[in-house]
Amino acid sequence: MENPRAPREIEVPAPTAWPFILALGAALLFAGLVTSMSVSFFGAVLAVAGSVGWFREVLPRGHEEAVAVLHEDMPSTTTRSAVDRLPVLPDQLRAWLPVHTYPISAGVKGGLAGSIAMAVLACAYGVLKVGSVWYPINLLAAVAYHESLRLVPAQLNSFHADAFAIAFVLHGIVSIFVGLLYGAMLPMFPRRPIVLGGFIAPALWSGLLYTILGLLNPLLASHIDWFWFMASQVAFGVVAGLVVVRQPRFSTRENVSFALRAGIEAPGTIPPRESGENQR
User: What is the pLDDT of residues 174-216, one digit of tens each?
Assistant: First the structure.
């Protein structure tokens, strides 16, 4: 019978179009990177407007509307005289992936090792192209150091302590973060880890940089050699992937005893007890 204390209506979030506007703005913001800056500007305006509008819908108090509760009479009937139970093997594990993963230290080690391999190829490019190892370092520093943009071609071949420090820190931080990303992704592709880390990921990363490099580093975009750039990316991916996969892995929570998880998640899958146990 219907519970007399059951609510007659409930409050649900009021419908709003602001999330759609925010999503549209974000899409236009990135679409402008390959089309026109005006498209990105329009997308940024929509994204800001959508964020403000959406925040005002939930803060300081969420906008809600009352909806009447429709009670339905749904009797539970069955023609079965016994409960069916699924057979469960005592050592069975769930097949969710990843079953094993790498510690954070594996990603850090892989990122640092990959950064060394990438730096060696980049410096080799500088020596072969202009006869100076400082050439690629000064180009990299221009990502975050505005003074590097003012260097004339002759100054790009000389040592600058400030540019070297900025390039060193920037290269190290980015390499560690990418190494952590490798450590999280490689367990999902256990059969071909080097293909993912050494070729697929560098190709995707280089394609993304090709579209936005002019905004991130105009100096590097005007001097970059894409063949050497791709080679350095592949070297990073191969070395980082090899270092990560050689680190010891640990089991994820998927390796917890299946019997324990089955008792918590799906009590109906627990095998029936023996008749002697039922009598006790």
Answer: 889 988 888 887 777 766 667 777 777 777 777 777 777 777 6
Side-chain-side CA neighbours of 11 within 13 Å: the count stands at: 4
Q: Which amino acid is at 153?
A: P
Rounded-to-10 torsion of CA 261, 265, 268, 269:
-30
**pLDDT 10s digits, 52-105:** 998 888 887 888 888 887 777 777 777 777 777 766 555 555 555 566 788 889
Report the DSSP beta bridge partners of residue 10.
67
Identify any residues that bridge with 66 across adjacent strands, giving them in sequence order. 11
Number of Cα atoms under 13 Å in the Cβ half of residue 227: 2
272-274-275 Cα angle (round to 5): 115
DSSP-derived 3-state class of residue 121: helix
Strand-pair partners of 243:
none
Q: Give 116-120's long-range contacts (Cβ < 8 A, gap of 24+).
A: 116/239, 117/232, 117/235, 117/236, 117/238, 117/239, 118/171, 118/175, 118/232, 118/233, 118/235, 118/236, 119/171, 120/235
Measured CA to CA, the distance from residue 235 to residue 229 in angstroms comes to 10
Q: Which two tokens stand for residue 26?
A: 């974000």
The bridge status of strand 100-101 relative to strand 250-251 is: antiparallel
Q: How big, in percent rounded to 5, are the helix, strand and coil portions of the chain?
A: 65, 5, 30
Tell me the residue length of the chain.
Answer: 280
14 close to 29: Cβ distance less than 8 angstroms: no
133-172 burial string, b = 16+ CB within 10 Å, else e? bbbbbbbbbbbebeebeebeeeebbeebeebeebbeeebe
